[in-house]
Specification:
Its cofactor is Mg(2+). By secondary structure, this protein is α/β, with parallel strands linked by helices. It is built from five helices and seven strands; from the N terminus they run E-E-H-E-E-H-E-H-E-H-E-H. The termini are close together. The structure holds guanosine-5'-triphosphate and magnesium ion. The site of magnesium ion (MG) has 5 residues, from helix 1.
């Protein structure tokens, strides 16, 4: 993928304020702090396009970005962080579910799993919604630099068990080494039908 331009379009919470353009779209979802915003920045080679933070819960809205005037990437708010205000937590489910159900130009969702963590209820809910609304899913195991390569297979076992997905379904990613960047782009391009 050659990135010629990137631009923040807008933030939104509900269908009434989603951007109107009908360009194809791929969204990024996963637990707070899993690295969604970092993955988007790495994909588009722009360190500061999406704000990242070591404090979980940084992204609390749907954030839409235009790439090359050709398609959009959407940073979805993370879930599962205890310190996020209750009001925000309550909104997460309906906000994300409605987006997945109603956004017609949505072509796929990249779902991130931290290689060090066992998936929890919200992760599995998310996978269920994607199946329910027939949105193609691109599962990614991220922060793989945190685990040595020879421990990888053992480390991902709980993720495979919890999600019921086979190993081959996952791309592996590290923002440090950029491992997986090309592979994930290929899958996104396929989903976008570019
Ligand atoms: P929310 O917006 O809170 O939902 O978080 P997020 O999923 O957007 O996470 P974000 O991209 O802000 O990253 C969270 C932290 O993880 C930051 O400190 C990143 O630098 C770090 N991080 C993200 N990806 C990687 C990775 O592949 N390897 C390592 N070592 N750290 C990473
Ligand atoms: Mg974020």
């Amino acid at each position: 993928m050659i990135i010629r331009s990137t631009a923040f379009i807008k933030s939104a919470t509900h269908p009434g304020n989603y951007p109107e353009a009908s360009l194809p779209e791929v969204a990024f979802a996963g637990r707070s702090n899993v690295g969604k915003s970092t993955l988007i920045n790495t994909l588009v080679n722009r360190r500061g396009l999406v704000r990242t933070s070591s404090t979980p819960g940084r992204t609390q809205l749907l954030n839409f970005f235009d790439i090359n005037g050709e398609f959009s990437l959407v940073d979805l708010p993370g879930y599962g962080f205890a310190k996020v205000p209750l009001a925000v937590k309550k909104d997460w489910g309906p906000m994300v579910r409605t987006y997945l159900e109603r956004r017609e130009q949505l072509k796929g969702v990249v779902v991130l799993f931290d290689i060090r963590r066992v998936p929890r209820e919200e992760d599995l809910d998310l996978l269920d919604w994607l199946e329910e609304f027939e949105v193609p899913t691109i599962p990614v195991i991220t922060k793989v630099d945190k685990i040595s390569r020879n421990r990888r297979a053992a480390q991902v076992k709980p993720i495979l068990e919890a999600t019921g997905l086979p190993l081959e379904a996952f791309s592996f990613f590290s923002a440090l080494s950029k491992e997986g960047r090309e592979d994930i782009w290929e899958r996104i391009e396929d989903a976008l039908e570019l």
